[in-house]
Amino acid sequence: MSPKASPVDTDAPASATARPLTEAQAGLWYAQRLAPDNPAFNTAHALWIDGALDVAAFTRAANRAAAEAPALALRMRETGDGPVQWIDPGHAPTLELIDLSAEAVPEAVAREGMSRDRLTPVDPARDRLALQRLYVLGGDRYVWYLRVHHLATDGYGMALLTERACALYADASAFGSFAPLDGVLAEDAAYRASEKRATDAAYWRDTLAGMPAATGLGGGFAHAAFDCLRHVEALDAAFRERLARAAAALGQPWPDVLTALTAAYCRRFGGQGEAVVGVPFMGRLGSASARVPAMVMNVLPLRVPASPDAPIAEFVQTMVRALLRGRRHGRYRGEQLRRDLGLIGGQRRLHGPLINVQPFYRPVALAGTHASMEILATGPVDDITLGFRGDGVQALDLEIEANPDLYSAVDVAAHAARLRGFLVAAFELASRPDACLDDVPLATPAEAARTLFDFNATAHPLPDTTLTALIEASMATTPDAPALVFDGKVLTYRDLDTRSRALAQALRACGAGADTVVAVALPRSIELVVALVAVLRAGAAYLPMDLAHPIDRRARILRSAQPVALLALDDDGIDWPDAVPRLAPREWPRTAGDTALPAVAPQHAAYVIYTSGSTGAPKGVVVEHRAIVNRLEWMRSHYGIDASDRILQKTPATFDVSVWEFFLPLLAGATLVVAPPDAHRDPVAIARLVRECGITTLHFVPSMLAAFLAAPEARGLSLRRVFVSGEALDADLRDRFHASMKSELHNLYGPTEAAVDVSFWPAGAQDTSRPVPIGFPVWNTRLYVLDARMRALPPGVVGDLYLGGVQLARGYLGRDDLTAERFCDDPHRPGERIYRTGDLARWRDDGALEFLGRSDHQVKLRGLRIELGEIEAAMVGSGFASQAAVIVREDRAGDRRLVGYLQATGEFDAAALRASIAAQLPDYMVPAAFVALADWPVTANGKLDRDALPAPAFEVGPLAPPRTPTETALAALFAEALGIERVGADADFFALGGDSLLAVHLLLAIQQRFGRDPGLGALFASPTVAGLAAALDAGAGEDPDHGLAPVIALAQGEAQHAPVFVVHPAGGIAWCYRELARSLAPARSVYGLQSPALDLAEPLPGSIDALAAEYAGRVIALQPTGRVHLLGWSVGGILAQAMAVRLRALGREIGVLALLDAYPAEVWRAEPEPDPVAALRALLAIAGYDPDAYPELQSREAIVDFLRRGDSALGNLPGAVLDGVVRAVTDTNRLVRLHHHGYFDGALLHVRAGRDHADQPQLQSALWAPHAAQVDSIELPFLHAELTGRDATARIAPLLDVRLAMFDPM
């Protein structure tokens, strides 16, 4: 068997005419060059032939067809002007004859040969682009194999080649030879130079404005794999007839009907929003390429609107019109569109699934034989292609090609069955004028049955008992065993029995009984546990109260719940309403009387927990004994909780996780260890409790788990099991957990309305799920993922999550209206109820559930459930706003912020508004920022467009008019550089959005206008119009200040706020902190410390400690007294830590010590020192670029030119100054490798670049643990080079504000 491709001479002969590649070819050329090992650009098919084939005649026909197609004889090479191509007639692929008739299984050998060839990459600059073979299988069986690189032809061209070869076999003199390739090339060149191209570009820009991000059906992103999963099935005559009738009823061509309805399927599968699919455009009609095998095909984006209520006819008509308009502008390349829209690189796509209807394929007729076509490869598949091949009359095949990195064979088969069913149902409705697309269910009947019933087969026998009875059974079984431990004190089950019985009797005297409520407002303590058990034994439901909540909120809850008693300290300093009888612990009886306690029934209320309410009032969830017993008994059984366990109770009682923390150990005969008040906020205290008390089981909200793992004390802990819930568990956090601790990890999910948790997932060390699922339903529980019509959705489709089963709450206390709204009849199980969670989820194929966020205005921050509507109501109720909206600026867990937007009723006072809200709501519900709006962004249907609400911004005050000619001129230059209409004399260049890039433009403009360059240093020191004008009038610019002084002022603030000293990274300059300095609120002075190595006349420092001592001296000179705040990025972090050690040795207090993605010196000791080129490449990172993204920049000239072209301030430094920067990089890196850290006896904040260090996963915040008394860690989703940029600063500045404020005077 001959090899796949023969290397050829790449020099064009003198007689050949080299032509540029067409636009269609150019995109493929560069794609193949970027992925030279990827064979996905090979297209191929096999024609299986049964019958008496005249091999000689077929050989002549195949060779002549190939000779008539010059594109198959193309050769290509790269030149200084780009890639070119020319035709080499001797390069046409002649048919190879391969006799396999002697093989035992010739068909298998042929398939292996075709597969090996097809999966071998072709180098277009070296290899032949096409190959054809005829395998002789024996017994009048043959297979003709044709493989062509996509650069030479597209699918339409492959069909032309097949038809032509068959025609020539039937009649060697058959007419219909192909048109010349020159016409295709000339047409492409003419289009590129035409006005039509500009018109087409404008059309697509307008059409795609506001286009949503394109996503596939698999929910992920991957590059085209080497091969794809293929599924082919023939659609029977009944399907084709239904399609024809539907097309006739709709008055549209059947290919367009098929495209439109398949697009509707893609939109439905992807969710309820607008979708974007890709549609191939052949571009042959009325073109020179009509009869030319060549690469002409284009892929156009098609927007699929979310119009579930639109009649099918209207929807199809809309889609067909969009297709027709797109085709009129279809020559404009999809690759160029991606560039126009900024969708190059990363995980950005122009479209999601590809819908490829190919009506030009007709059954192959090869004279005297029976021939069947098998498509082997059609080109790269990024996501999934839903294809239909055939004329729709004689034949039509459904062909699905999918990227195996995103889809499994099971996924593909499921899509085939589901799409076929969806289309047939849509065809049947096409003739009904009142029918709409949403009438068509997405799930097949089998899928609906599987997700509704098979996934929810959770029936389990449950004793008809109560939580009270289970706790009392433990008291009777192990009376002398320790029931609970708090602050060194131990209470046995006998003690708990006695004390809780006595208090229960007292509560009975106050009126406590079945379905009454007793409020409990106690800090974590032995008394709190006694109180909760006593309330249950009295037959009542306990209502936990948060002592930190505002009095108005507590009063509303007490008015709503109408408790018969309040258990609270009498000296807690809390202003409780007088209407509720209060029993303080010192008044509780210690011994029980003879009065019998009431019998408690499973249907009685066990507890009431109030959650945030969307109407502005909190709502009380009533949970019955039957529900919580199911939850606790499942957990005890499933996780093997027994008397040997010691379970830590640290969750506030107002959070429903506390329910199992309190009672699971008591019903299992285990020991309940109660954490001190506020310990749940202190990772160090938790780690100490775990070690000292032998904790086996505890719970975290994921954001708190992240903080816990960052504490050095947590490393190496060993527990039996750790549970997380309350927020989505990030996969990276799961992996970090297992790298830090030895324990099982379990992810739980559930709302307060369903007895704490309803699903579970073992997030063990071997789990690689991304995202981490919320898992499978617990005993006697149902989880539904339904569409807007309450129909089941198939696996992989996002829908609304509903819960059913024994754990559902009774409802909301005293709010039948809210109960009826959220608890409804189960449409799939008559007589049962379900609860609408407001969460979005989707099934995995294994029956596990993935949580995907909220569908309403409810959010969770740090595990606390927040109804945004309650905050909005408080804003309007304040009198400062007539309209309000609150959103969460979504970021990583633990670093999200509430932002309030309002239509102000008058003069807007943010501080007064914040105070008003804080008086009504808990602190975690007070927005971090407020934005007053005059105009509200709305969607096309008039609803508030929350995604378009602006980010919080500083308000600009009234303009101060320029007072001098210099100020007037500078004000105009400021406005021009900043792109704003006008500025005043007090305008601050950086506060108005200027950065070092815009500063370059401003300084060039100043130099042209005044003939002098004041330099970046002068602009940093005097960033206002008036300040810079004064400097210019005083003679600045004669000797420009390049901003390389030992200390530069980056921001000026008020004297009562201590300044921040920021330390240069490796390059020695501190300009990079300008954005951060200007973003701190309240404003405070920020000084940048810069390297002495920048001055070529200065000697190099001898060590990091020597530098730290010098920098400490600069700090003391600027700030003789008071706490010192330090911050450093990269190498600057190493220096900042050394400075902190030095300053402490001098007796100075350190406030904030913040390190931005810096790692200790010992990490770098074994690394080679950077050479001059490596040092220069470090400038890319300092300028905000990722050096790894520009491997070609390997010389000083290339790097400086790149920085200049990017308008970087670094690139515009004079040569001698740039030498100083390179010197600083080289020397600082040398010193780092020699440094040994001293111990800093305070807290260190480390910000880790979460999107970096894939090749160095050991770079973690915990590396600083040996060098500081405490390490607080925060991870942000940025690269190392991005941490001082605008986006990262928007995340880091608020974190610093909070920490800095802790050290400010009250």
TrEMBL record:
| Record flagged with keyword Transmembrane | no
Q: Which UniProt keywords apply?
A: Phosphopantetheine, Phosphoprotein
GO MF annotation, one? phosphopantetheine binding
Q: Looking at the record's lineage, which domain of life comes first?
A: Bacteria
CDD domains linked: A_NRPS_AB3403-like
A Gene Ontology biological process in which this protein takes part is: amino acid activation for nonribosomal peptide biosynthetic process
Q: Which Gene3D superfamilies match?
A: 3.30.300.30, 3.40.50.980, alpha/beta hydrolase, Chloramphenicol acetyltransferase-like domain, Luciferase, Domain 3, Nonribosomal peptide synthetase, condensation domain
Name used for this protein in its record = Amino acid adenylation domain-containing protein
